Amino acid sequence: MIMETRNRSSFPDFTHPGRGHPRNLKGDDILMEARRLSVSDVVEFMASFRPYRPALGIDAALEEIEKNKGILYDLEVVDACLRLFKEKGYRFN
Known about the structure:
Elements: H1 2-9, H2 32-47, H3 58-67, H4 75-86
Helix pairs in contact: 1-2, 2-3
């Protein structure tokens, strides 16, 4: 399962509607694990410091996924991620 997820999610530029996916997979054709990785990668990337830019912050990251849920990111995954941070109080260390 992990190897299959890696094979399908090793293309970081693909989005939920299938743009950028090498096999043109869309929506539910993309493994749930890959959809989760896509959203979590965006949140971590935006919220964290990078050598070439300061951290944009968790609020900007959550705003990005909320604004683009169902467009670029899976609806269920975004809703779960938003609940985790907003209702459950999850924070990056």
